[in-house]
């Protein structure tokens, strides 16, 4: 099984597990669903990677960071449940599972599962988004649209699309449901690694908000900002985001 196939399979299977957790805990509190989802998906992914790629290191949102990854050639970067709030709210579908592989300085494989939508987007081949409408759509959090996204909307004469998790937001650009995702409010490597790998495979622009490259498997796993957008909009978006 190739790394691409493994990423897609594990993201999909973790998503199926999370759907079962959601069903099992339908009568529980949202906090109980969040905790169970995070733990069970993390445990599943760690066990599966240990079985399938025992020589590789793993960086997981829910795990203890092992400094051995900093000298490793191959590191899986995973978010077992991206969008715990949305997952905990029964009926919402804008949450995800991220599985990415970093090797020798680059993201080489990745998958974003959207379990409640029955969709997994995975490298190496991801369809480019369909043609965009005339008005750029900027995807933002439904509760806290960042000022930088509002500035991009104003500069592009665009509209806002509200959505939950980071993975779901990037996926919406890949799927052609939005055109721009900008974030500057603080994230970690696992929030963006798999979505960025998928977005790149679809031919989208990905970078920091100042236009510099997104770099993974760093000692400090914080990676606070990013831009994912249609390539034809990148120059206009970065003109706003790089200006701060």
UniProtKB/TrEMBL annotation:
Keywords: Magnesium, Metal-binding. GO terms for molecular function: 3'(2'),5'-bisphosphate nucleotidase activity; metal ion binding. Coiled coil: none annotated. Mg(2+) binds at residues 61, 79, 81-82, 191. The keyword Membrane does not apply. One of its GO terms (biological process) is sulfate assimilation. Its cofactor is Mg(2+). CDD domains: CysQ (cd01638). It comes from the Bacteria. It catalyses: adenosine 3',5'-bisphosphate + H2O = AMP + phosphate. PROSITE patterns: IMP_1 (PS00629). This is 3'(2'),5-bisphosphonucleoside 3'(2')-phosphohydrolase. It comes from Mycolicibacterium confluentis.
